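As a warm-up, study this chain.
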Amino acid sequence: MSLKIRLARAGTKKRPYYHVVIADARSPRDGRFIEKVGTYDPKLEDKSLRVTLVTERIQHWLGVGAQPTDRVARFVDAAGLKTREPRNNPERAVPGKKATERAEERAKRVADAEAAKEAAKNAPKEEAAEAPAAE
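Now compare it with the structure written out below.
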């Protein structure tokens, strides 16, 4: 059985409140769980009181092989129970295909506008120089 340490929502509409629970990975988010090992109240203004954990039980379940979810891993790391590996996704900031195409089109339009501006600047000088020579 694959165990997860995860959040189970318990608040009302627009008033989130979460229980930190040990659950089978196949059970639903707010469904059956094995043990409640803490709480998380994101609405509290005092950040130090938002998360409460039963550290002994979390250490036990980590020792048994339970895997924390990303959010719970942050809480466990802040409590000093298990270090969280920093995540690195260098492709996250890379624009998508459509955004890249739009940027290229925009750059082309700007370059064309500048070229037309330069051509317009140079054209009157050439016409003025040709006009007296024609007479």
